[in-house]
Amino acid sequence: MKVVARFVVSAALLAALALLVDVSGVVERLGSASAPWLAVGLAISVPQALLLAWRWRYTAGRLGIDLPFRVALAEYYLGNFLNQVLPGGVTGDVSRAWRHARTEVPVGAAVRAVVLERLSAQAVMTSVAALSVAAIPALPLPARVGAPAALVLLGVLASRVGRRSGDAPSAAGRFRADTRVALLSSDARLLQLVSAALVVGSYLAVFVVAARAVGADAPSTALLPLVAPVLMTMLLPVTVAGWGLREGAAAALWGVAGLTPESGVAVSVTYGLMSLISTLPGAAVLIVSVTRSPDRRGRRRPAGSDASAGAGHPRETGSGSG
Questions:
Q1: Inter-axis angle of helices 245-256 and 261-278, to 10 degrees?
Q2: φ, ψ for residue 22 (rounded to 5)?
Q3: Gyration radius of the chain's alpha carbons
Q4: What are 237-258's pLDDT values in tens digits?
Q5: What whole-number distance in Å separates Cα of residue 150 and Cα of residue 142?
Q6: pLDDT at res. 237
Q7: Whole-angstrom Cα distance, residue 132 to residue 144?
Q8: From CA 85, how far away is CA 96, in angstroms rounded?
Q9: pTM given for the model
Q10: What residues does each domain of the chain span?
Protein backbone atom coordinates (compact mmCIF):
# COMPACT_ATOMS: atom_id res chain seq x y z
CA MET A 1 0.00 0.00 0.00
CA LYS A 2 2.83 2.41 0.77
CA VAL A 3 4.22 1.95 -2.73
CA VAL A 4 0.87 2.78 -4.32
CA ALA A 5 0.34 5.67 -1.90
CA ARG A 6 3.57 7.37 -2.94
CA PHE A 7 2.65 7.13 -6.61
CA VAL A 8 -0.71 8.64 -5.71
CA VAL A 9 0.96 11.46 -3.72
CA SER A 10 3.18 12.36 -6.67
CA ALA A 11 0.24 12.32 -9.07
CA ALA A 12 -1.94 14.35 -6.69
CA LEU A 13 0.75 16.99 -6.14
CA LEU A 14 1.33 17.36 -9.87
CA ALA A 15 -2.41 17.58 -10.50
CA ALA A 16 -2.81 20.25 -7.83
CA LEU A 17 0.10 22.18 -9.27
CA ALA A 18 -1.52 22.05 -12.71
CA LEU A 19 -4.45 23.97 -11.24
CA LEU A 20 -2.19 26.70 -9.88
CA VAL A 21 0.13 27.42 -12.80
CA ASP A 22 -0.27 28.00 -16.51
CA VAL A 23 0.21 24.48 -17.85
CA SER A 24 0.37 25.67 -21.44
CA GLY A 25 3.31 27.90 -20.53
CA VAL A 26 5.11 24.96 -18.93
CA VAL A 27 4.43 22.72 -21.94
CA GLU A 28 5.63 25.42 -24.33
CA ARG A 29 8.92 25.73 -22.47
CA LEU A 30 9.38 21.96 -22.38
CA GLY A 31 8.58 21.64 -26.07
CA SER A 32 11.20 24.21 -27.02
CA ALA A 33 13.94 22.74 -24.82
CA SER A 34 17.43 23.15 -26.28
CA ALA A 35 18.96 19.83 -27.35
CA PRO A 36 22.56 21.05 -26.89
CA TRP A 37 21.85 22.11 -23.31
CA LEU A 38 20.13 18.80 -22.62
CA ALA A 39 23.20 17.03 -23.98
CA VAL A 40 25.40 19.05 -21.62
CA GLY A 41 23.26 18.01 -18.66
CA LEU A 42 23.46 14.34 -19.60
CA ALA A 43 27.20 14.66 -20.18
CA ILE A 44 27.66 16.00 -16.63
CA SER A 45 25.93 12.88 -15.31
CA VAL A 46 28.79 10.67 -16.52
CA PRO A 47 31.61 12.07 -14.34
CA GLN A 48 28.99 12.44 -11.61
CA ALA A 49 28.34 8.67 -11.70
CA LEU A 50 32.08 7.93 -11.76
CA LEU A 51 32.62 10.14 -8.72
CA LEU A 52 29.70 8.60 -6.82
CA ALA A 53 31.05 5.10 -7.47
CA TRP A 54 34.54 6.17 -6.39
CA ARG A 55 33.18 7.67 -3.16
CA TRP A 56 31.36 4.45 -2.31
CA ARG A 57 34.45 2.40 -3.08
CA TYR A 58 36.62 4.73 -1.01
CA THR A 59 34.23 4.65 1.95
CA ALA A 60 33.99 0.87 1.79
CA GLY A 61 37.78 0.69 1.61
CA ARG A 62 38.02 2.74 4.80
CA LEU A 63 35.92 0.05 6.45
CA GLY A 64 38.24 -2.72 5.26
CA ILE A 65 36.10 -3.87 2.33
CA ASP A 66 37.30 -4.43 -1.22
CA LEU A 67 34.81 -3.09 -3.75
CA PRO A 68 36.06 -3.17 -7.35
CA PHE A 69 35.40 0.10 -9.11
CA ARG A 70 33.62 -1.54 -12.05
CA VAL A 71 31.24 -3.28 -9.64
CA ALA A 72 30.68 -0.06 -7.68
CA LEU A 73 29.86 1.85 -10.88
CA ALA A 74 27.40 -0.76 -12.13
CA GLU A 75 25.70 -1.06 -8.74
CA TYR A 76 25.48 2.71 -8.36
CA TYR A 77 23.82 3.04 -11.76
CA LEU A 78 21.37 0.31 -10.73
CA GLY A 79 20.71 1.98 -7.39
CA ASN A 80 20.09 5.38 -8.97
CA PHE A 81 17.75 3.83 -11.53
CA LEU A 82 15.72 2.14 -8.80
CA ASN A 83 15.58 5.42 -6.86
CA GLN A 84 14.13 7.08 -9.96
CA VAL A 85 11.40 4.56 -10.71
CA LEU A 86 10.43 3.27 -7.25
CA PRO A 87 8.87 5.21 -4.37
CA GLY A 88 10.74 6.43 -1.32
CA GLY A 89 14.05 7.54 -2.80
CA VAL A 90 16.16 5.01 -0.88
CA THR A 91 15.27 1.70 -2.56
CA GLY A 92 18.37 1.89 -4.72
CA ASP A 93 20.61 2.46 -1.71
CA VAL A 94 19.02 -0.50 0.05
CA SER A 95 19.69 -2.51 -3.11
CA ARG A 96 23.36 -1.51 -3.12
CA ALA A 97 23.81 -2.52 0.50
CA TRP A 98 21.87 -5.77 0.12
CA ARG A 99 23.64 -6.86 -3.07
CA HIS A 100 27.03 -6.02 -1.58
CA ALA A 101 26.16 -7.97 1.56
CA ARG A 102 25.37 -11.03 -0.58
CA THR A 103 29.09 -11.37 -1.12
CA GLU A 104 31.36 -12.47 1.73
CA VAL A 105 31.24 -8.90 3.09
CA PRO A 106 29.62 -8.65 6.55
CA VAL A 107 26.09 -7.29 6.32
CA GLY A 108 26.64 -4.56 8.90
CA ALA A 109 29.78 -3.27 7.22
CA ALA A 110 28.12 -3.24 3.79
CA VAL A 111 25.16 -1.29 5.13
CA ARG A 112 27.29 1.22 7.00
CA ALA A 113 29.47 1.86 3.92
CA VAL A 114 26.38 2.86 1.92
CA VAL A 115 24.87 4.91 4.73
CA LEU A 116 28.06 6.83 5.45
CA GLU A 117 28.73 7.53 1.78
CA ARG A 118 25.22 8.96 1.37
CA LEU A 119 25.27 10.86 4.67
CA SER A 120 28.47 12.73 3.91
CA ALA A 121 27.10 14.05 0.60
CA GLN A 122 23.76 14.89 2.19
CA ALA A 123 25.52 16.83 4.92
CA VAL A 124 27.16 19.02 2.27
CA MET A 125 23.87 19.42 0.37
CA THR A 126 22.10 20.39 3.60
CA SER A 127 24.77 22.98 4.31
CA VAL A 128 24.48 24.42 0.83
CA ALA A 129 20.68 24.51 1.10
CA ALA A 130 20.77 26.32 4.44
CA LEU A 131 23.22 28.91 3.17
CA SER A 132 21.17 29.27 -0.02
CA VAL A 133 18.03 30.03 1.96
CA ALA A 134 19.97 32.72 3.82
CA ALA A 135 20.97 34.21 0.45
CA ILE A 136 17.42 34.66 -0.87
CA PRO A 137 16.57 38.23 0.17
CA ALA A 138 12.88 37.90 -0.68
CA LEU A 139 12.35 35.21 1.97
CA PRO A 140 11.16 36.27 5.44
CA LEU A 141 13.94 37.08 7.87
CA PRO A 142 13.10 34.20 10.27
CA ALA A 143 13.58 31.70 7.44
CA ARG A 144 16.87 33.24 6.32
CA VAL A 145 18.25 33.29 9.86
CA GLY A 146 16.70 30.04 11.03
CA ALA A 147 18.16 27.84 8.30
CA PRO A 148 21.84 28.60 9.09
CA ALA A 149 21.07 28.40 12.82
CA ALA A 150 19.58 24.95 12.37
CA LEU A 151 22.66 23.97 10.38
CA VAL A 152 24.97 25.07 13.21
CA LEU A 153 22.88 23.11 15.71
CA LEU A 154 23.10 19.99 13.58
CA GLY A 155 26.85 20.43 13.32
CA VAL A 156 27.21 20.72 17.07
CA LEU A 157 25.13 17.61 17.64
CA ALA A 158 27.11 15.69 15.03
CA SER A 159 30.42 16.70 16.59
CA ARG A 160 29.24 15.55 20.01
CA VAL A 161 28.29 12.18 18.58
CA GLY A 162 31.61 11.95 16.77
CA ARG A 163 33.56 12.52 20.00
CA ARG A 164 31.83 9.73 21.85
CA SER A 165 33.52 6.38 22.13
CA GLY A 166 32.81 4.10 19.19
CA ASP A 167 34.32 0.93 20.64
CA ALA A 168 31.19 -0.21 22.45
CA PRO A 169 29.93 -3.57 21.12
CA SER A 170 26.65 -2.04 19.98
CA ALA A 171 25.28 -1.05 16.61
CA ALA A 172 25.50 2.63 17.61
CA GLY A 173 29.06 2.17 18.81
CA ARG A 174 30.12 0.48 15.59
CA PHE A 175 28.45 3.20 13.55
CA ARG A 176 30.27 5.94 15.49
CA ALA A 177 33.57 4.13 15.11
CA ASP A 178 33.02 3.65 11.39
CA THR A 179 32.06 7.31 11.02
CA ARG A 180 35.38 8.34 12.54
CA VAL A 181 37.34 5.93 10.36
CA ALA A 182 35.54 6.58 7.07
CA LEU A 183 34.66 10.27 7.33
CA LEU A 184 36.29 12.12 10.21
CA SER A 185 39.85 10.83 10.52
CA SER A 186 42.58 13.24 9.49
CA ASP A 187 43.49 11.36 6.32
CA ALA A 188 39.88 10.90 5.15
CA ARG A 189 37.89 14.03 5.90
CA LEU A 190 39.43 16.26 3.23
CA LEU A 191 38.85 13.71 0.46
CA GLN A 192 35.33 13.05 1.69
CA LEU A 193 34.55 16.76 1.90
CA VAL A 194 35.99 17.65 -1.50
CA SER A 195 34.39 14.70 -3.28
CA ALA A 196 31.02 15.39 -1.61
CA ALA A 197 31.26 19.05 -2.63
CA LEU A 198 31.97 18.00 -6.22
CA VAL A 199 28.95 15.68 -6.21
CA VAL A 200 26.70 18.43 -4.86
CA GLY A 201 28.18 20.87 -7.37
CA SER A 202 27.31 18.48 -10.18
CA TYR A 203 23.68 18.34 -9.05
CA LEU A 204 23.50 22.13 -8.93
CA ALA A 205 25.14 22.36 -12.35
CA VAL A 206 22.63 19.96 -13.93
CA PHE A 207 19.75 22.00 -12.51
CA VAL A 208 21.18 25.24 -13.91
CA VAL A 209 21.71 23.50 -17.26
CA ALA A 210 18.05 22.40 -17.14
CA ALA A 211 17.13 26.05 -16.63
CA ARG A 212 19.13 27.10 -19.65
CA ALA A 213 17.63 24.27 -21.71
CA VAL A 214 14.08 25.59 -21.23
CA GLY A 215 15.07 29.19 -21.86
CA ALA A 216 15.29 30.50 -18.30
CA ASP A 217 17.56 33.51 -18.74
CA ALA A 218 17.86 34.63 -15.12
CA PRO A 219 21.50 35.08 -14.11
CA SER A 220 23.15 32.13 -12.39
CA THR A 221 23.60 34.23 -9.25
CA ALA A 222 19.80 34.42 -9.01
CA LEU A 223 19.23 30.76 -9.89
CA LEU A 224 21.82 29.02 -7.74
CA PRO A 225 20.37 29.97 -4.32
CA LEU A 226 17.08 28.39 -5.39
CA VAL A 227 18.47 25.03 -6.47
CA ALA A 228 19.63 23.29 -3.28
CA PRO A 229 16.41 24.02 -1.31
CA VAL A 230 14.38 22.59 -4.21
CA LEU A 231 16.54 19.47 -4.42
CA MET A 232 16.30 18.93 -0.65
CA THR A 233 12.56 18.31 -1.00
CA MET A 234 13.39 15.11 -2.88
CA LEU A 235 14.66 13.62 0.39
CA LEU A 236 11.14 13.45 1.81
CA PRO A 237 10.12 9.78 1.32
CA VAL A 238 6.51 10.45 0.33
CA THR A 239 6.72 10.54 -3.47
CA VAL A 240 8.44 8.85 -6.39
CA ALA A 241 11.87 10.41 -7.03
CA GLY A 242 10.62 13.72 -5.65
CA TRP A 243 8.06 14.23 -8.42
CA GLY A 244 5.45 16.73 -7.30
CA LEU A 245 7.30 17.99 -4.24
CA ARG A 246 10.23 19.21 -6.32
CA GLU A 247 7.99 20.97 -8.85
CA GLY A 248 5.88 22.57 -6.13
CA ALA A 249 8.96 23.85 -4.32
CA ALA A 250 10.38 25.19 -7.59
CA ALA A 251 7.15 27.03 -8.40
CA ALA A 252 7.05 28.57 -4.92
CA LEU A 253 10.70 29.61 -4.76
CA TRP A 254 10.72 30.93 -8.32
CA GLY A 255 7.71 33.06 -7.42
CA VAL A 256 9.34 34.35 -4.24
CA ALA A 257 12.45 35.27 -6.23
CA GLY A 258 10.41 37.29 -8.70
CA LEU A 259 10.59 34.71 -11.48
CA THR A 260 7.60 32.99 -13.06
CA PRO A 261 6.37 29.81 -11.32
CA GLU A 262 5.86 28.23 -14.76
CA SER A 263 9.58 28.62 -15.42
CA GLY A 264 10.40 26.93 -12.12
CA VAL A 265 8.10 24.01 -12.89
CA ALA A 266 9.53 23.60 -16.40
CA VAL A 267 13.08 23.63 -15.05
CA SER A 268 12.21 21.08 -12.37
CA VAL A 269 10.48 18.75 -14.84
CA THR A 270 13.45 18.98 -17.20
CA TYR A 271 15.82 18.20 -14.34
CA GLY A 272 13.70 15.20 -13.36
CA LEU A 273 13.62 13.84 -16.90
CA MET A 274 17.38 14.31 -17.36
CA SER A 275 17.97 12.56 -14.04
CA LEU A 276 15.84 9.62 -15.14
CA ILE A 277 17.52 9.34 -18.53
CA SER A 278 20.98 9.52 -16.97
CA THR A 279 20.24 6.43 -14.88
CA LEU A 280 19.11 4.22 -17.78
CA PRO A 281 22.41 2.27 -17.78
CA GLY A 282 21.12 0.98 -14.46
CA ALA A 283 18.19 -0.62 -16.30
CA ALA A 284 20.72 -2.62 -18.32
CA VAL A 285 22.41 -3.69 -15.09
CA LEU A 286 19.02 -4.79 -13.75
CA ILE A 287 18.30 -6.85 -16.86
CA VAL A 288 21.68 -8.55 -16.62
CA SER A 289 21.16 -9.16 -12.90
CA VAL A 290 17.86 -10.97 -13.38
CA THR A 291 19.10 -13.06 -16.29
CA ARG A 292 22.27 -14.41 -14.71
CA SER A 293 23.81 -15.02 -11.32
CA PRO A 294 25.33 -11.94 -9.67
CA ASP A 295 29.09 -11.59 -9.79
CA ARG A 296 30.14 -11.82 -6.16
CA ARG A 297 33.39 -9.96 -6.28
CA GLY A 298 33.20 -7.79 -3.18
CA ARG A 299 35.28 -9.30 -0.38
CA ARG A 300 36.53 -8.55 3.10
CA ARG A 301 40.06 -7.18 3.05
CA PRO A 302 42.49 -9.36 5.01
CA ALA A 303 43.49 -7.91 8.35
CA GLY A 304 46.51 -5.65 8.09
CA SER A 305 46.38 -5.22 4.33
CA ASP A 306 46.95 -1.80 2.84
CA ALA A 307 43.58 -0.36 1.87
CA SER A 308 45.27 2.43 -0.03
CA ALA A 309 45.37 0.12 -3.01
CA GLY A 310 41.59 0.11 -2.97
CA ALA A 311 40.89 3.60 -1.66
CA GLY A 312 41.81 4.05 1.99
CA HIS A 313 43.71 2.54 4.91
CA PRO A 314 42.72 -0.50 7.00
CA ARG A 315 39.91 0.20 9.38
CA GLU A 316 40.29 0.13 13.12
CA THR A 317 40.08 -3.23 14.81
CA GLY A 318 36.62 -4.16 15.99
CA SER A 319 34.62 -1.63 13.98
CA GLY A 320 33.81 -3.77 10.99
CA SER A 321 31.88 -6.69 12.34
CA GLY A 322 28.39 -6.88 11.04
A1: 140
A2: -80, 100
A3: 21
A4: 888 999 999 999 999 999 988 8
A5: 11
A6: 84
A7: 9
A8: 15
A9: 0.84
A10: 2-293
